[in-house]
Design brief:
The chain is an alpha/beta fold. It is built from 7 helices and 10 strands. The strands form 2 sheets. It has a 6-stranded mixed sheet with strand order 6-7-8-3-9-10, sandwiched between helices. Bound molecules: adenosine-5'-triphosphate and magnesium ion (MG).
Length: 262
């Protein structure tokens, strides 16, 4: 069970030149149990910072994050992050990578092995369990990263551009696999992407962020079952609406974010 409440959250960083940079300002957001929420916004608007705050890795200046009505005390097994680069241990096999977190948590080896194998099956990688990371493609590495996150059985998956470094076909396959996993496991997912099409394809709700400092421009609910056809006129319309919001942002702050148009 995971019900997240973000209340009046702000965060600044001190830059190299000692100047203060306000990154997130007065963010208020609620994320429901089992919801798939995507954050989209210009580069530098604070998406990764927000995910890191939700993971408990960064402390906000003001405001609070409540998980099931309790302030998150820091990092926890209930929230696991998946990054753009899989960051696997190169000297460990695929299954050892997936087992790693369980071993740290003192789960006995046989149980850890069985749990890891089950997750590798879920991401269609059981046959590669004894391979080393360098023997895998980018998409396969990302699947291992997803299995490694799921094996901890978190309530919330925090995904920071998890498919951002993949080619288009692999990205499409992993999107489908993620939706299958999400429908099957009923996890809450908070997902960051620059790809508007990916956002409308996957999400129950899209939170569009503006920048300097990061704030919520709009929240768009998408009440459409899966699988979603990319030509669905409703989704195409939503894509255009989000594109306009982001283009306005870029005109306002004078940046052009190429990834948005990918
Ligand atoms: N530890 C830090 N110290 C100083 N500045 C930071 C730190 N972390 C992030 N920033 C700055 O905060 C701003 C937001 O960064 P963040 O990584 O959250 O953006 P983002 O929305 O994830 O961008 P992208 O889409 O490029 O990944 C950026 O200007 C960045 O330079
Ligand atoms: Mg980022």
């Amino acid at each position: 069970m995971a019900f997240l409440k973000i209340r009046n959250l702000s965060k600044h960083f001190i830059q190299q030149d000692k100047k203060e940079l306000e990154v997130l300002k007065d963010i208020n957001l609620e994320i429901n149990n089992k919801e798939f929420v995507t954050l989209i916004g210009p580069s530098g608007c604070g998406k990764s910072t927000l995910l890191n705050i939700l993971a408990g890795l960064i402390t906000p200046d003001t405001g609070k994050v409540l998980l099931n009505n309790r302030i998150i005390p820091g990092p926890g097994k209930d929230r696991v992050m998946v990054f753009q680069e899989a960051a696997l241990f190169p000297w460990l096999t695929v299954i050892e990578n997936v087992m790693f977190g369980l071993k740290i948590n003192n789960i006995d080896k046989n149980t850890a092995y069985e749990k890891a194998l089950k997750q590798l099956k879920a991401v269609h990688l059981a046959n590669f369990k004894d391979s080393l990371p360098h023997q895998l493609s980018g998409g396969m590495k990302q699947r291992v990263a997803i299995a490694r996150a799921l094996v901890m059985d978190p309530d919330i998956l925090l995904m920071d551009e998890p498919f951002g470094a993949l080619d288009e076909q692999t990205r499409l396959i992993l999107q489908k696999e993620l939706i299958d996993i999400w429908l099957d496991t009923q996890k809450t997912i908070i997902f960051v992407t620059h790809n508007i099409r990916e956002a409308v394809k996957l999400s129950d709700r899209i939170v569009v962020l503006g920048t300097n400092p990061g704030y919520i421009i709009d929240e768009i609910k998408i009440d459409l079952p899966h699988p979603r056809e990319r030509e669905n006129p409703y989704l195409v319309k939503l894509e255009n609406r989000i594109l306009k919001l982001l283009q306005n942002q870029m005109n306002t702050v004078g940046v052009y974010d190429e990834a948005v148009y990918a």
